User: Fold this.
Amino acid sequence: ASKNLKAKQKKLIAAQSRLRTVWTLAGALLVLLSLGGVSWVIAGQVRPGTYAANVVIVPASNRKLTTGELRAWQEFHEDLLMDPQFMEIACERLKRRGITTLATPGMLLEYLETNLSFQSPAPGRLEVEIRGDGPTRTERILDTYAVTLAGEANRARVSRSDGAGTQLESPAKAQRLPLDNQRLATSGVIFAASGGLFLFFGTFGYARLVRVKNEFEKRGELDMILDEANWVDPRTL
Assistant:
């Protein structure tokens, strides 16, 4: 009976050990997945990557514009993009939207010289692109700049030969994917560092728990041996 009990106890201990191993691996995998998600979020704050935002600006008129009027409209808007007086107005709008790093004409000019590009594939169609850190911020910068440009152009329409208004064909929109892999690389570094720390402390803690468990089981086995021993009653000596 004692041998059967010991065999059942060994089977129970083995089953519990396998179950603990499965739960340990599942927990470790869950933690690593969580670290990956957190690393991606942190990387998005630290180095979000360079994104491009685009907008198309077109004339607004209740009549068909001539080729000459479309060209005049186009030239005016291309010149307005980098006009110093317009930049002062744009800086004020950007400041209101919380973009303080572009709140002065000098800072805005330096930013646009590096990150602004535009083209006119046809008279009366101005395609503008701005590049910057993070999709949301870049999209907000271009939206503010384009809306301000359209507003100022509409105020000046009465004094222009074309007399056409200005509107955005669609709201400014940032591309979904970055132009570089800064965020991915930063996320990988953060994940590797945090994962390494987790594995180090996790392995240390697990080894300590196993050692305590083994000592506890040894004490239990010793107690069973002592209970089963046939001690001589000292009164019979």
